[in-house]
Amino acid sequence: MAQSSSSKKLIILGALFVVSIVGLVIWNQNRQSQHQELVIGISPPFAHPLQAAAKEAEKQGIHVKLVEFSDWNTPNITLNNGDIDANFFQHQPFLSNAIKEGGYKLKAFGMGAASHVGLYSKKYKSLDELPQNARVVVPNDPVNQGRALLLLQQAKLIQLKDPNNYLSKLSDITVNPKNLKFIEVEGPQTARAIDDVDLAFGYPHYLRLAKTADPNSALLLDDTTNKRYAILFVVRDDYEDKDGKLKKFIEIYQNSPAVKAAIDEDIGPKLWFPGWV
């Protein structure tokens, strides 16, 4: 009986040892898999094209995880902390300002699409109809506010101290004949604020996502095709692109017909242009 009991104990111990080894192997495989995964932080309006790129990348053995952020601050904080490999939501002026203000160690790695921006209204059909003291929504961050003010200047609604300064702020307005009243909100919220004001600066992809206005219904679109506003793939300064995964993913994004179709659908064929050519 004692010998039989000892044998059973050995069998149980042996089985536990095997289970432990198998568990360690599985854990290690999962760890390696997660390490090989390319994790990119994004804003929701850019999800569809990047999902299309990720689907094609998977066929080439590149595993991509997309993490969505609802604001424009957390993606850079998270990237700077090393919790993601890259992010995709900002253009160069925004990145430069974020680095200046936040002290981030970040850099651009690749170029994405750039979109036009517009002035939208659900109350008026032309800029000429805009009344005195009209309420106008603009972004509250320095970079996109500057872009909005340049567009309002293009519309001849205001005049700026330096007509070419893309970092102009509200205090730089020197002429405001209609006495426009400006309401500052976070960039992503401009699309939702359009229902409550007379005029709103807007991004086509955010308007389409919010379903508050047709992106093609702008009273005026900006006339610039400056690639400074192309959305960037951003990484840490010390980022090492192991096996060229991110480089390959960006090439897929830039060249895939499926990605182009997704951008056309989300922004509008006439409302965007490639920032990499």
UniProtKB/TrEMBL annotation:
Name the principal localization, coarsely classed. membrane
Q: Does the keyword Transmembrane apply?
A: yes
Record keywords: Lipoprotein, Membrane, Palmitate, Signal, Transmembrane, Transmembrane helix
Signal sequence span per UniProt? Answer: none
A Pfam family of this chain? Lipoprotein_9
> Topology relative to the membrane, per the entry?
Lipid-anchor
Location(s), subcellular: Membrane
Segments passing through the bilayer: 10-27
The organism's place on the tree of life at top rank:
Bacteria
For this chain, the family text in UniProt reads: Belongs to the NlpA lipoprotein family.
Which protein is depicted? Methionine transporter
